[in-house]
Amino acid sequence: MAPLAPLATPTIGVLALQGDVREHLVALAAADALARPVRRPEELAEVDGLVIPGGESTTMSKLAVAFGMLEPLRERVRAGMPVYGTCAGMIMLADKLLDGREDQETLGGIDMIVRRNAFGRQNESFEAAVEMTGVEGGPVEGVFIRAPWVESVGAAADVIARYDGHTVAVRQGNVLATSFHPELTGDHRVHAMFVEMVRAAG
């Protein structure tokens, strides 16, 4: 079977159940993707990759169930669709959670244990320069808002950024996650990296 040809202009969805959807749509468009909001399974079926935005992870989990999106999302992740999660999106992509609600659902996709709100509450939000493997041109500016961190990763996952001794970005195959919000900075290099992941996945 011939290898898949790279996609010239991939269509990338942003899960639009809750969170900072508009900022991701802008960043993806700036990184040369066709960006669209995704709320329903039929919209999910039409995209080549997906961003899961920051927001409130427990609310996002409940809305994914209410909108009939949880199982379709899990199926696409298992099937190898490229996915990028920021902050709450990182939580959604974790195989295991610490400090989550007992009924909180995740999609899985990265063999990692994530601690919710690890960097503190809303009033302890901060910005910091983060060196990130795979992103050229110097450190990215990370915006940390009630951000999680990764307690540990399995053998299949690669740590690609740390801050203050904590893992804040992880990649496993076609799945990428960051504790911080690059979509809030005007620097679109992390989104460009993800767009290239989607292109390469064909």
Structure, explained:
This protein has about 200 residues and is an alpha/beta fold. It is built from six helices and twelve strands. The strands form three sheets. The chain has a seven-stranded mixed β-sheet. The chain has a three-stranded mixed β-sheet with strand order 5-6-9. It has a two-stranded antiparallel ribbon with strand order 7-8. β1 (about 10-15), α1 and β2 form a beta-alpha-beta unit.
Discrete helix count:
6
- Sheet/helix structural class: alpha/beta
With strands numbered from the N-terminus, the spatial order across the biggest sheet is 2-1-3-4-12-11-10
Share of helix, binned: 25-40%
Order of helices and strands: EHEHEHHEHEEEEEEEEH
Number of DSSP strand runs: 12
Question: Kindly state the mean pLDDT as a whole number?
Answer: 92
General shape: globular
Poorly predicted segments: none
Work out the strand percent.
25-35%
Alpha-carbon distance between the two ends: 14 Å
Let me know the largest β-sheet: 7 strands, mixed
**Oligomer designation:** single chain
- Give the radius of gyration: 15 Å
Q: Could you outline the blueprint of secondary structure elements for this entry?
A:
Blueprint: E1 11-15, H1 21-30, E2 34-38, H2 41-44, E3 49-52, H3 57-66, H4 70-78, E4 83-86, H5 88-93, E5 94-98, E6 110-115, E7 126-130, E8 140-144, E9 149-153, E10 158-163, E11 166-172, E12 175-178, H6 189-201
Parallel strand pairs: 1-2, 1-3, 3-4, 4-12, 5-6
Antiparallel strand pairs: 6-9, 7-8, 10-11, 11-12
